Automatic annotation (TrEMBL), chains A, B:
Residues with N6-(pyridoxal phosphate)lysine modification: K333
Annotated organism of origin: Leersia perrieri
Protein name: Aromatic-L-amino-acid decarboxylase
Source species, domain of life: Eukaryota
Key words of the record: Decarboxylase, Lyase, Pyridoxal phosphate
Amino acid sequence: MGSLDANPAAAYAAFAAAADVDGFHPLNPDDVRSYLHKAVDFVYDYYKSVESLPVLPGVEPGYLHRLLQSAPPSSSAPFDIAMKELKDAVVPGMTHWASPNFFAFFPSTNSAAAIAGELIASAMNTVGFTWQASPAATELEVLALDWLAQLLKLPASFMTRTVAGGRGTGGGVILGTTSEAMLVTLVAARDAALRRSGSAGVAGLTRLTVYAADQTHSTFFKACRLAGFDPANIRSIPTGADTDYALDPAVLLAAMRADADAGLIPTYVCATVGTTSSNAVDPVGAVADVASTFSAWVHVDAAYAGSACICPEFRHHLDGVDRVDSISMSPHKWLMTCLDCTCLYVRDTHRLTGSLETNPEYLKNHASDSGEVTDLKDMQVGVGRRFRGLKLWMVMRTYGATKLQEHIRSDVAMAKMFEEFVRGDDRFEVVVPRNFALVCFRIKPRKFASEEEAERVNRELMERLNKTGKAYVAHTVIGGRFVLRFAVGSSLQEERHVRSAWELIKKTAAEIVGDGEDDRLMMMMRE
Amino acid sequence: MGSLDANPAAAYAAFAAAADVDGFHPLNPDDVRSYLHKAVDFVYDYYKSVESLPVLPGVEPGYLHRLLQSAPPSSSAPFDIAMKELKDAVVPGMTHWASPNFFAFFPSTNSAAAIAGELIASAMNTVGFTWQASPAATELEVLALDWLAQLLKLPASFMTRTVAGGRGTGGGVILGTTSEAMLVTLVAARDAALRRSGSAGVAGLTRLTVYAADQTHSTFFKACRLAGFDPANIRSIPTGADTDYALDPAVLLAAMRADADAGLIPTYVCATVGTTSSNAVDPVGAVADVASTFSAWVHVDAAYAGSACICPEFRHHLDGVDRVDSISMSPHKWLMTCLDCTCLYVRDTHRLTGSLETNPEYLKNHASDSGEVTDLKDMQVGVGRRFRGLKLWMVMRTYGATKLQEHIRSDVAMAKMFEEFVRGDDRFEVVVPRNFALVCFRIKPRKFASEEEAERVNRELMERLNKTGKAYVAHTVIGGRFVLRFAVGSSLQEERHVRSAWELIKKTAAEIVGDGEDDRLMMMMRE
């Protein structure tokens, strides 16, 4: 960070002399370029060194407040000061999602094209709430969504521009999170069900029911509550090992039937392609068929695994998507597009805009009045919105389908390699089949050991691993079993990182349960 | 954009030779640096030239789809290709919010420090849903919010860290939009009211009522519908010229009293400091006093004008904020922080997290269990979140209170200058008092002219102005009058731009209504 390390006083002095000559110009192009060059240098150094930083920092709550001043500075300072504090105080307390040794949660994949696109978007800083407020921002977002829909082989009914070149009723929007995608479609489905049932206002809300497998992300159940659904009417459908924790359409049907028979109105079903916990895949087509009996809205949450479906060998996981009402997937998870970027597609945009449209005087304009354009504010919670399409378009424009597929396949191959390591060591077991680049595994419990014992051993393994700073793995509980999640795909990751992590896991496990069967038995017996 | 313009074939050839040597590395530090340097050059050139670009582009709906290929590329391309298409096809269709000739809506202010901060955040690409998922990201966000609270002189009850250094119940979170701030507080207020009223589930929802002045942003009424409030129970309180279109506490009291008397439950009041239409300021303290009679939640939307309240001379607009439940303001509007950045403060975070908390197994960790840390996912709609605090912290760290205040004051001074221009020309009138940096004005209607005539003339003025590409002004309707909104503050704006815009307005008005009274009367009579 330049001269500051050597001589902060000098940096301040030079700065003070230069300041205030001609007022305050926060976007002076020379300052912008100078600050950005410093930021680029930081990013370069960060990517070069992140591998050697502890993935999970060993800081205590409140650490940063002890390092940085608690009151805002009253006067200005050279940008180097902020950069120095970033480096000295902030970076040591970061969990490094960009580290190639990050295997927790799902990776937040990224790329040079995405970061560059986001930089330009934040510099242009347009607010594309209506088409007129930034025609190119709206049209590039729509184009990027249509491109992605083509990569995913989504039916033309989800695209703004149909294959024939005309305008269908479908369309998409880029949102910040899957939760928002769920929320806005829940609201559209809710309003449609209320209308269908002849409800006066929201009086009929207590009769509406919603459904998802118990493996569905917790944010779905939260989104239902946000939209005002009655907590008693939010059905979490049990799953089990028999379906590898995917939603069983027969169980769904029984639940919906029972509700309908009781005078309730099945309104919405969420199916997940690649659950957060274990990457289970709900059968999209079968779920859609069940839901159609009740005219319920079907949403597919493919936040993580949707990206894989750009490869022909994974596309079958979306079979039946032509019969659902909406689907969302997040390129910020696995399509090398930095946060945040969740793509929502709906088959009938009017059902969405019918619930979300606003038309204040100060946003009225000829283009909106003409009905020829998409005003993206009417497909999201808020009004304001960044230039969201640019980075996603740049990723597809620069890397093309081939490289994007190569990237998915490379991650899956590394996960497969890890899975084989696990399977090849009889102290470990893979707990559920691997579908994508997530391996759920654990130290195998000894015979007749309780689940509590198995959990204690595996929790110990996880905590020891994470304390090394050389790997970060997260956990889940599947079917009552405490399981480690090994998610491959951080964008700087190479095969050697997966190999090193496995060596570390073996070594750490050996410290806990010994090198082989006998040692392990002895350890267990001593406990 | 480099060699591409001269010889795209050569760029492709060099690129093809370099590719595929060693797999695909989307975050290769050298590529990242190279792409970012190109992006920085673009940004520099853009800021240098944006003044000369038409603010509002003259493109037709669908223009971009005609310029860019409709199918995603199958193979990769040099980054220069994306940059060239950005420059040739996208930029000409942008509405340039960064232009110093942009006077529409509210400015999306920006700064070198903010853009650099956002760049670093998107490169680090952490997902700080829990404290553990990125301790520094969470703590820096909390610190930035506490700093801003101090600049705004918010009561300590809104800060995470109270003045005494202990931990209060208050706290904040950075969200994407004001709408989300409204939504999450509406949901918290809704759930509290349901509990208070002994409602079984959401059965009592039909009795809950919400209130805001008719000048409140339309997104408030949308957020109410998203949260499931009955459309019939969403009260838009009429305002008039007598209060300069601010909420009249007596009218609010009468409306709440009437609802309570009818057995309804007043649940939430939204007060605005600086309405979108005309910058009216609802009296925060008086509104809080009325609402407290009914135990209703009071939220202050200070999206735009909140930033001005860092200056002592504007702080009185927040008087009474110590008695409200929540306040949100958006540094992405007027505090030089690029999109998106909306700061929400609540007095009792537990009321918010009580409605928004989720606790899935895969996110459980010791820090969260200890209750010592803030998990920001529980104060927003979604789970995932960018490293949101960095850019806001960098803005305050680099510019300090003094420069931030200077920036507000400079904008207000320019708006005041414009206001004086308008007042000094008897063909024009200022329609409502100017509170901040927005001037609402129009061509004065001639005596006995209908509002339709006045609207026609002023609409003509707006459309002619915007077609020149040399200024972009938006409109609104206040008290039945069609009015032009002249919002000063785009970050590249200087006094000369305001002067030029006024010259253009005078010249264009003269084309429509003549240079003086006689000409104007004649023009009007001919119509």
